[in-house]
Design the sequence.
């Protein structure tokens, strides 16, 4: 209510015409101004030394940028470009900020920190001296006049701003300040460690971020919340520039004042939807917004953001609006002004170096204007075009330099990079085209003259049409039966076309008012504003719709979809809309009151948008504990500027920007914490050749992802903890060398992945070894001169015990709570399907395993049946086998053996299963023992001291887990697998050939340094062993790592290939059932086979062909392929049987049966590919992760993966790629039924229009 009342009061003051105006005259001699400038600089220096952070930052913003800008404008003789003080102040601030940012960036790159701080101090000091010299000259006193009504308006406007930001922009909330925090982090890194930062990612907002960084250098203060608060005046630049453009269009101060309040009015009409669909509570309101509800989210969240956030876009928009003002002034004069080319170039460079799309639109608008006017305005357009061309070249070159640095001099041919190259230099080409057209016009001036004449005559029809479209659009959009969604294809609204009625909702009252304003301007002969702004609106719709069609056709245009160009339509409508409001209210008290009320109702939308952030702020508020942790973490980061922060969740990653400088490596860090194998997990610790990170974990919010993957389960407990603050822990990650595909040292992976394998990975990584991982049964293992074994090879068979609770998690469903020593399922509520599945520790299953599960029933409902299951063959959520116990109300226990196929469950024997007996109590500890004999396909189970039960089972090599149904709380305390593993290494071959074999074992060992036990001085031990025992360079080299690893452009969970050709060095085949082999019309049935090795006899690559195959997982650099038919031409096959016998097969072979194929970094070439579970891809739209279908001869090069993520490098240049299901792009025809439903508005508008015409005719006929 306060917000809406302020809107009404501001509008009332804007159009108020008192009989006698109050004049306040301020007389300031030039020397006084000079003394104030000196005092300001001294105050800035003192505030930064004492320090007084908030004052230093405020003075840096409000003193440094304007002073530098005024000095630069005076030196370039640009004072006459803008007539009034507001326009000159805005122009000075824009070019001053840009120049200040360029100097800060250059000083940071070439002087480093803290040399760049002294450079910006010298810069401000020199410009201060220059300005002081100007104002110290003898001259008349400068008279500053401010009218009383203007003073009242400014007071109410500032109160409105304060009220809006009070609830809209809390400074200790990472939402909505997430973007601002990210920009703050970038700006700190640009001045603290720019070369490292620019090598990570191209920064399209480079100069704005360096400007922010320069302010912090000048103030010697680096505090995210404080910077966010101080930078709020930057958010007002675009609003003030829009008011300045309105003054140039309308030519009166009242319209300018009205334009100042338009962003707060917000123009949209989404509040109508809220009135009709009021949420029952703040929680329900938040849920509606979080779900991406089109009618709420789009209407509330779009328009104010580009104009009201202190981020690069409003800064660039302000430069764009000043560019329009300059263009309008030149067109009105139909001539040139001294310095106009320089001013245009500076503004164009400012746009392209802070937020490029505005520069692109400005250059495109110049081209259209030159096309219309041609030679008639050559003298006016030529300087603007020339300056814009020079500024565009400079801005494009600067942006291209950042792309070059980010790609380390080797640009990748990716759509996004090509798009950036085109976007950077498109303005320069457009400005050059405009320059040519302005000199050699093509004769469209008569056509424009006729259009302008038509506009003066037909404008009433246009304004009536705008009113009709607004009413009809709002009616269609708010209709309960309307199921439109521009986000059907993309929740972020990147892809697709914007429905026509969304324009009406977003533009709101600006649509009819703007068209009415165009009518008034056309009647008054203001040809230039109508032409320039009208062309801008048409250009914005055309460009946005064209990009929408490109996206809908599968051509990636980046994240600049159609909806982002609605902003330019709003800019084109806002000045004439403000002028229309001023004309409607001029001299009419009743109309002033009515319009004030209407604007207050429209302002409800902005207040509701602000209250949204108030509701959600508690969810994103930075707690006192987090602030304390960030203070400590910030000290570490400033002392070690190349370190970065690695956190399990987006929330913690974004919030940790308060402790900048940090770097972001992955868009969503939770993915890397879910990785199950070190080949993926360790790679992030050398991403982009960064120094090792600090690991930040808030256990209150991050415990689930932190304990899921290899990092949290294996690496984290072994990292040194730096400090703890409440529930927050910060760890120090050392230098870790990731496994590489072609390392010089091979780590042999045994058939079972136990703790010794993880420790071997850590030892080699800590030692900085250039190593790779090779499966123990892979014959390519013997091609390495140095082989590391994580177990003792002297034993023919060894007993292995695996603690599953310390194994990475592969899948969870329902309520699952993980901690370091147990897993709790149930979530204190009665529900089905609480599942947790661990990574499969076997790639070659043993003949038999024993499993021990100790679980505690803590809470349950005795009135219902409760179940505890052990999952032993998990494929996916809809396909797995399990065995378990059912507890009844009478404490009876039944054993069941079941399977889930395509989501449907079956039990053998049928429910309720086999009765085991009675127990004394259900709550408390229980012990479940399971014995699997896979060769005999038998499973025997025992619960506590009850009867032993056996089942016949089928098994296909799936993962292991547990499932709980209906129990309120069950805690799994222990879960061990015990098995005997055969040693499959060829020891004779190892001994016969010249190689070094290193065994990591827990027993004491002796080397040159004496006796060392495993676990003590691990890094030293590994380095000494490798240095003393090998004669090759086994040191990890980061540069070589990046040249050898392909950048994956597809990440998915599984791919089904049809008509597949596979290329690899060899294939490891593990039968899941009996296997049939066809050779020369002979059939062999192979049973009791452990595995097969298929190689090429010519020592070249091996080819295999499949009708259909499914890649569902990986083991590091090995892809796991499931198939039931495989043809291998000219292959050598070694068949290893269970009893140790080895047989050979040669020639063209056809294999049939269910089997698993392991291939190291294979290449798949398929005629058709169905890709499921896509997490990221750049094949179609880099910003959309959806299932894909690839038709045609496409090549998939496997990079690495685990059971959750598969990374591929895909060449589909000759293929057709489609989303599955296909993108459901909105069609305008879908709204036809609703348009017909509300067709009565057509009748109403026609009647009103006819009545108005009749009224005019009657007036003419009266004497």
Sequence:
């Amino acid at each position: 209510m306060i917000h809406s009342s302020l809107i009404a009061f501001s509008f009332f003051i804007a159009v108020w015409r008192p009989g006698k105006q109050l004049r306040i005259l301020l007389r300031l001699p030039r020397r006084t101004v000079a003394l104030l400038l000196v005092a300001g600089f001294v105050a800035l220096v003192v505030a930064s030394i004492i320090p007084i952070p908030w004052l230093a930052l405020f003075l840096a913003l409000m003193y440094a940028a304007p002073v530098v800008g005024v000095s630069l404008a005076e030196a370039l003789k640009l004072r006459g470009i803008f007539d009034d003080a507001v326009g000159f102040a805005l122009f000075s601030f824009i070019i001053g900020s840009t120049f200040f940012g360029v100097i800060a960036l250059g000083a940071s790159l070439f002087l480093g920190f803290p040399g760049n701080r002294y450079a910006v101090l010298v810069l401000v000091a020199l410009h201060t001296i220059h300005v002081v010299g100007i104002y110290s000259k003898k001259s008349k006193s400068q008279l500053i006049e401010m009218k009383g009504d203007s003073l009242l308006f400014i007071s109410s406007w500032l109160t409105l701003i304060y009220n809006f930001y009070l609830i809209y922009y809390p400074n200790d909330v990472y939402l909505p300040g997430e973007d601002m925090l990210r920009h703050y982090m970038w700006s700190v890194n640009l001045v603290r460690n720019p070369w490292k930062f620019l090598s990570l990612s191209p920064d399209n907002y480079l100069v704005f971020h360096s400007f922010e960084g320069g302010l912090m250098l000048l103030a010697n203060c680096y505090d995210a919340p404080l910077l966010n608060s101080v930078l709020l005046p930057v958010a007002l630049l675009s609003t003030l520039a829009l008011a300045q453009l309105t003054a140039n269009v309308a030519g009166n101060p009242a319209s300018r004042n009205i334009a100042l309040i338009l962003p707060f009015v917000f123009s949209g009409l989404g509040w109508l939807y809220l009135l009709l669909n009021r949420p029952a509570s703040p929680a329900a309101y938040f849920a509606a917004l979080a779900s991406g509800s089109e009618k709420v989210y789009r209407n509330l969240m779009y328009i104010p953001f580009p104009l009201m956030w202190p981020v690069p876009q409003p800064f660039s928009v302000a430069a764009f609006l000043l560019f329009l003002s300059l263009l309008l002034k030149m067109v009105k004069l139909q001539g040139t002004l001294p310095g106009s080319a320089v001013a245009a170039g500076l503004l164009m460079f400012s746009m392209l170096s802070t937020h490029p799309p505005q520069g692109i639109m400005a250059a495109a608008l110049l081209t259209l204007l030159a096309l219309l006017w041609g030679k008639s305005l050559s003298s006016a357009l030529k300087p603007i075009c020339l300056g814009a061309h020079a500024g565009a070249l400079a801005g494009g070159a600067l942006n291209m330099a950042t792309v070059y640095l980010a790609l380390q001099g080797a640009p990748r041919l990716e759509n996004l990079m090509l798009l950036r190259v085109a976007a950077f230099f498109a303005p320069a080409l457009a400005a050059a085209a405009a320059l040519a057209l302005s000199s050699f016009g093509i004769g469209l001036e008569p056509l424009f003259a006729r259009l302008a004449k038509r506009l003066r005559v037909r404008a009433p029809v246009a304004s009536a049409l705008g009113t009709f479209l607004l009413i009809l659009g709002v009616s269609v959009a708010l209709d309960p039966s309307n199921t439109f969604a521009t986000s059907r294809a993309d929740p972020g609204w990147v892809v697709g076309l914007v429905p026509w009625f969304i324009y009406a909702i977003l533009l709101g009252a600006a649509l009819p008012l703007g068209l009415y304003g165009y009518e008034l301007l056309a009647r008054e002969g203001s040809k230039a504003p109508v032409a320039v702004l009208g062309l801008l609106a048409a250009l914005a719709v055309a460009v946005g719709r064209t990009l929408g069609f490109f996206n809908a056709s599968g051509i990636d245009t980046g994240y600049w979809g159609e909806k982002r160009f609605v902003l330019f339509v709003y800019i084109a409508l806002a000045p004439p809309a403000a002028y229309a409001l001023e004309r409607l209210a001029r001299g009419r008290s009743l109309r002033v009151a009515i319009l004030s009320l209407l604007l207050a109702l429209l302002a409800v939308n902005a207040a509701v948008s602000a209250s949204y952030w108030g509701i959600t702020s508690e969810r994103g508020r930075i707690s006192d504990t987090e602030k304390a942790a960030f203070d400590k973490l910030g000290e570490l980061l400033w002392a070690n500027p190349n370190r970065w922060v690695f956190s399990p969740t987006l929330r913690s990653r974004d919030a940790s920007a308060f402790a900048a400088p940090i770097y972001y490596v992955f868009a969503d860090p939770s993915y890397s914490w879910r990785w199950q194998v070190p080949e993926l997990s360790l790679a992030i610790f050398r991403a982009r050749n960064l120094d090792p990170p600090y690991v930040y974990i808030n256990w209150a919010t991050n415990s689930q992802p932190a304990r899921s993957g290899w990092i949290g389960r294996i690496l984290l407990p072994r990292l040194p903890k730096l400090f703890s603050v409440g529930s927050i822990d910060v760890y120090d990650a050392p230098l870790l060398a990731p496994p590489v595909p072609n390392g010089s040292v091979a780590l042999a992976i045994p058939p079972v992945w136990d703790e010794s394998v993880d420790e071997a990975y850590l030892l080699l990584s800590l030692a900085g070894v250039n190593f790779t991982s090779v499966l123990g049964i892979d014959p390519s293992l013997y091609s390495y001169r140095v082989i590391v074994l994580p177990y003792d090879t002297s034993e023919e068979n060894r007993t292995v015990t695996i603690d599953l609770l310390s194994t990475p998690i592969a899948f969870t469903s329902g309520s699952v709570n993980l901690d370091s020593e147990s897993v709790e399922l149930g979530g204190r509520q009665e529900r089905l399907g609480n599942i947790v599945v661990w990574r499969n520790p076997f790639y070659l299953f043993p003949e038999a395993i024993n499993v021990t599960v100790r679980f505690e029933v803590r809470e349950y409902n005795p009135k219902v049946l409760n179940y505890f299951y052990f999952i032993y063959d998990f494929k996916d959520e809809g396909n797995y086998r399990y065995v378990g116990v059912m507890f009844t109300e009478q404490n009876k226990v039944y054993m069941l053996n079941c399977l889930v196929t395509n989501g449907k469950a079956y039990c053998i024997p049928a429910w309720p299963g086999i009765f085991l007996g009675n127990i004394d109590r259900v709550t408390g500890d229980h012990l479940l023992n399971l014995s699997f004999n896979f060769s005999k396909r038998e499973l025997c189970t025992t619960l506590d001291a009850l009867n032993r039960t056996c089942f016949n089972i089928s098994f296909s090599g799936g993962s292991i887990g547990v499932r709980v149904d209906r129990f309120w709380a069950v805690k799994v305390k222990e879960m061990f697998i015990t098995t005997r593993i055969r040693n499959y290494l060829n020891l004779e071959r190892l001994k016969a050939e010249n190689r070094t074999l290193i065994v990591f074992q827990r027993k004491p060992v002796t080397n040159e340094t004496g006796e060392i036990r495993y676990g003590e001085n691990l890094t030293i031990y590994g380095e000494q062993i490798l240095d003393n025992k090998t004669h090759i360079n086994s040191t990890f080299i980061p540069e070589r790592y990046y040249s050898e690893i392909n950048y994956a452009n597809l990440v998915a969970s599984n791919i089904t290939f049809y008509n597949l050709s596979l290329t690899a060095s060899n294939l490891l085949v593990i039968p899941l059932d009996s296997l049939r082999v066809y050779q020369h019309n002979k059939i062999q049935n192979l049973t009791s086979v452990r595995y097969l090795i298929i190689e090429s006899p010519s020592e070249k690559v091996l080819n295999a062909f499949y009708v259909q195959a499914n890649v569902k997982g990986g083991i590091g650099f090995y892809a796991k392929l499931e198939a039931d038919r495989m043809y291998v031409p000219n292959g050598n096959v070694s068949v290893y049987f269970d009893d140790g016998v080895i047989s050979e097969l040669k020639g063209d072979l056809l294999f049939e049966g269910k089997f698993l194929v392991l291939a190291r970094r294979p290449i798949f070439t398929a005629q058709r590919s169905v890709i499921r579970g896509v997490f990221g891809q750049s094949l179609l739209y880099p910003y959309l992760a959806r299932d894909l279908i690839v038709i045609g001869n496409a090549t998939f090069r496997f990079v690495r993966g685990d059971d959750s993520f598969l990374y591929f490098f895909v060449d589909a240049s000759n293929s057709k790629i489609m989303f599955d299901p296909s993108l459901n792009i909105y069609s305008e025809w879908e709204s036809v039924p609703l348009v017909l439903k509300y067709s009565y508005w057509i009748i109403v508008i026609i009647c009103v229009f006819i009545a108005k015409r009749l009224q005019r005719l009657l007036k003419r006929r009266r004497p």
Q: What stands out?
A: The longest helix spans residues 445-477. The chain has a mean pLDDT of 81. DSSP finds 40 helices and 42 strands in the chain.
